[in-house]
Structures are given as structure tokens and as C-alpha cells.
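Lab notes, practical 5.
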Amino acid sequence: MTLFPLHAFGARYDLPAPLYLFLIGAGAVVFVSFLLVLRRPVTRQQPAGDDVPPVPHVPSWPGWLMFLVAVVLILGGLFGAQSTPDNVIVTAFWLVFWIAVPISVAIVGNYWPYISPLNVVARLVGTRARLDWPAWFGYWPATILFFLFACGELVFNGVTTTPAGTAQVMLAYGIVNAVMAYLFGGETWLPRGEVFSVLFATWGRLGYFRFGTPGSRGFFGGLHRPFEASVSRLTFVLMLLVSVSFDGLLATPAWKNLVSQLPDALRPGAPGYTILLLAVFVLLVGVIWGLFAGFAAAVRAVGHLDEPLLNVVAGLLPSLVPIAFGYLLAHNFGYLAINGQLLIHQASDPFGMGLNIFGTVNYEPNRNMIPTAVIWYFEIVLIIGVHIAAVVLAHGYLGRAARTETQGRRAEWPWIAAMVGYTMTSLWLLAQPIVQEGVKG
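Output from the prediction step:
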């Protein structure tokens, strides 16, 4: 049984034209869409509702069923076969739960509270708060935990993506969830500290159904509300962009060439390489913060907005969530299609115990199931589409925040510069592992 590397693809696609033409064309499409949206009328009514509403109380049996599944996975990871392709826990957690579930939440809506075993346990042990949630905590616990999970996938994957390593991650986080809920109460911990409640509430703003949360029904219906204007909350949202961009950066030939020129102490396999990856990850968070805060400052200055800069960032940041989703889906599309096939093999023998329940234990994933050209053109359409959605959302926010329609339209020009630049950068990153330039002659 073969396990392909993260985001493995088939043969590289030979582009029919130089890559820069695709990038310029994509940026031009986004810019034209901006010109069309610019004259669109905007309602100046401010949307209401909390950033992350209280996690709803729902029937507990689906949560307990998922809790039982999690326990079985942990036991299977600890005591089953330690071959990653032969133990379902790695695929179930890092592919299904970490990637496929967020994508589905962003499409359907935040159904997570209805099935979450973490919510059931948190409310069971945290019936009352024993400590007050310090104001300075904000969303930092959820933000730090998201950073750690992202590092588990991207930096420490030599350990965390083994069956035992994945089981230990799940068990450790289950304990953290129970302890924090016991200390601060489930009703406080879940919406502000429990990373998956915050993560799926954020992705759920895109989904078609609101499931009781503020916003209008339909895609992107929850993105008209700003995020809470706190550094911790905004950092959490920006990390949705950073984590996937960082993953894409590691797949580029430019990064691989750079690493090949580093001293042995900083190359893959050495402890110094892990430190290097952590430093680059943190640096990217700072760079993204600086870039978008800078563009927000330009928007505020050009549009003469009255709101503080942090509020402007909080108002513009919802327009970046569709982009984060688009890049998450595009970057993982091939990975889901290829490594997701492991579930066919693992369904017959989930923990490598020598079973063959459905007769599929010898199934081998087809690496060329989806042609690379299809993946590339899907990525182009997707990235352009989500950037256009970002332009529309930013137009709505600035039309409400500015004192006049004229000032609101003027304020959009710095932001469209950011959107065009980010469109081209995203496509360039996505192109690196799957396409090659050159015209066939």
C-alpha cells in the first residue's frame, strides 16, 4: 500500500502559454470585476450579531457517538499497525477532520456544534466556571492551539502524522479541552478558547445555512459582520491564510533550492530545520499582518474613514475568508482526491489487524485519477471567483463605513490593489508543484 506525500499530484502539466500570462489574466479579471462592482449600490445599514455567537445547545447523542468514534480511533492509533497507510486514524484526522470537514463547513454551514464530542465533554465537566476568563486572553488560546495544530501538520509531521503520534495529539487535546472547560466553564471556553468551535464558526460564515447564527441565508451570508476588533481574533483569521500559504511555499522549487544551499544543520532531518520552519511560519504571520494592516491603513486614509485602524482591519478581514477557503480547497484538491482513496483500503482493515471486511484491502490509490490540467484550470477559476467575492464584500463594508458613497468608492482602490496582487501570488504558489512553463512546438 502506497501513501503519497502531502499534496502529491500526477505528471506536471505543460502550460500552453507562459505562467505570467495566466497570472496577469487572472489579475485583470479581478480588476475588471472591481470596476463593475464599484457602481453597485450599497445598503448603509450596519449588520448586527456577535462575532462568534454562543455555541448552541443541541441533542447530545450525536456528540457522544462521535466521542465513541474518537476513542476507538485513539485506541487503534496507539495499539494498531504503525504503518500510516494501514491505520485509518491518520487519514481520518489529518485528511477528513483537518481538511475535508472545514471545506464542507464552508460550503454547507457550521454543523459542527450538532456533532461535536468536544462540546459534549466541555459542557459535562464545565457546568460552572471556577475561574473568570481574563480579558487579555481574548481568542489567544484558540489562536495558539490553531498554530500548534498547523505546526503538527506542516512542521512536526514526521511524528504527528504517524498512527501513534496522531492518537497522542487527539488524546492530549481532549484532555486540554476537558481541563479548560472545567476551569472556565463550557459556555466560556467553547466560543473563545476551543479551537475547533472558533475555527468552524469562522468557516461557517461562508456556508449556505446559518444554523441559527446571525446573517442572511446563502453563500457568504455570514460575512457581512466584522470580526471582533481584537488582535487575537484577527490573528486567528489571518492564520487561516498563513497556514495554507506556508504549506504552498514549502512545495515550491524556490524553497527546495534555497534549502539545498543551506548548511547541513538547517536541512530536512536536522533539528535546525524544524526551528527554521517555525521561524518562517511566525515570520509569515507577521508579514501578512503588516501587509494587510498597511493596506487597511491606506484604505482608511484614502476614504477618510472615522473608525480606528483595528476596526477597519476587522471590517475588511471578512472579505479575506473566501480567499482563504479558495486557497484551502485549491491547494488540497489533488491531495483529497489521491490520499482520500486510502479510505477504500482502510475501510476493510481500519487498524491493520489483517482483516478484509469489504474485500478492498488490496486497493491501490490511483495517482492520476484527476488529470493535472483539470486541477490547474479548476484552481484558476476558483481563485479568481473567491477574489471577486472578496471585492464584493469589501465594497459592501466600505460603503457602510464611509461617510459618503464617494469616499467609500475612493477607499476601495488600495484594497483592489491588494486583491489583484494576492490573486497573482496565490496562483503562482499553486502553480509551482503542478505545472511547468513553455509552449509546445
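Observations recorded by the TA: Residues 52-223 form one domain. Residues 80 and 351 are 5 Å apart (CA to CA).
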